[in-house]
């Protein structure tokens, strides 16, 4: 199983950044506009459409306000047999650190998924700094 961990420093308060990240139905507006172009909510899940046209159905496992952590699992992917991910906010100086972790199978998909996470985080940083 591949495990990917990426993080960014965000020049904004943990509270403001968490407010955007916990809004799981507005990823396309409040977190990564352009990287995610649409989010459709379903019972216990969201369907995200990425800027490259790819879609993913993500079961929302938890939105933990105390830990400032969102966990989701991609289901029904033709490429992945397992994908579980989380994003978490930690105070860091006057701002915060955002950590995105993804565990997935097959391991051969790690390069592509890591690239997507990096692209998403390049959009997240300035967006969350304006939040």
Keywords:
single chain, 131 residues, alpha+beta, Alpha-D-Glucose-1,6-Bisphosphate, Chain A, domain 4, seven-stranded antiparallel beta sheet, 3 helices, 7 strands
Commentary on this structure:
By secondary structure, this protein is of the alpha+beta class. It has a single domain, classed as 2-Layer Sandwich (Alpha-D-Glucose-1,6-Bisphosphate, Chain A, domain 4), CATH 3.30.530.20. Helices cover 26% and strands 47% of the residues. The chain has a seven-stranded antiparallel beta sheet with strand order 1-7-6-5-4-3-2. The longest helix is centred in the last third of the chain and has 21 residues.
Short structural summary:
By secondary structure, the protein is an alpha+beta fold. It is built from three helices and seven strands.
